[in-house]
Amino acid sequence: MNRQPQSSEYPPYYAHYISLVKEDNILRVLKNQVIDIQALISGIPEDKENYAYAEGKWTIKEVLGHVIDTERIFGYRAMRMARKDKTMLPGFDENTFVENAQFNKRTLYDLAHEFAIVRESHLASFKHFDEIALNQIGNANGKEVSVRAILYMIAGHAAHHMDVIKTRYLID
């Protein structure tokens, strides 16, 4: 649990997300992100909640909703692979998910609450993954990936999108 995944454990596309995780204790990173994301979200003014920084870009609510959707999917993949399920797991179209989720009709508080619940649920499961489970390799979207890498991808993906919110949505 306390080592970064090797580059051979995940598709190159995810290297950026994994590089954003600077600590080896992934459970601590995942737990601390709940606090960090709650703090970020609680400081967003109401008039910015449905703001998109450019035409065709998601709103802050949609970004957070996307993070939640992705976390659910990645968490499901991690659980299946940790249980030695070798079924090829399909990808998903993130834009179609966001378009059909109606995140902008929800409150930002509600989305932040859902994020915390999803993350806590994953932490309750992930803390029981031993080295055998973490080293399991599965196939997601036609690419091989380890359970360990998925945990880092979850954290890095959330970190990436929270950075996007800070740098592109909350600047004046």
Tell me the CATH architecture: Up-down Bundle
Question: Low-confidence runs (pLDDT<50, min 5 residues)?
Answer: none
Query: Strand tally, please?
Result: 3
Radius of gyration based on Cα positions:
16 Å
Largest β sheet strand count, sense and barrel closure:
3 strands, mixed
Principal-axes geometry comes out as globular
What is the CATH class?
A: Mainly Alpha
Numbering strands along the chain, what is their spatial order in the largest sheet?
1-2-3
CATH topology: Four Helix Bundle (Hemerythrin (Met), subunit A)
Key attributes of the depicted protein:
mainly alpha; three-stranded mixed sheet; 172 residues; Four Helix Bundle (Hemerythrin (Met), subunit A)
Question: What would you note in describing this structure?
Answer:
With 172 residues, the protein is mainly α. The protein has a single domain (11-169), classed as dinb family like domain (Four Helix Bundle (Hemerythrin (Met), subunit A), Up-down Bundle). It is 56% helix and 6% strand. It has helices at 15-19, 26-42, 60-82, 94-99, 108-126, 131-134, 147-169, and strands at residues 88-89, 137-140, 143-146. Strands 1-2-3 form a 3-stranded mixed β-sheet. Helix 2 (26-42) runs antiparallel to helix 5. The radius of gyration is 16 Å and the shape is globular. The N and C termini lie far apart (40 Å). 33% of the residues are buried. The model has no long low-confidence stretch (mean pLDDT 97).
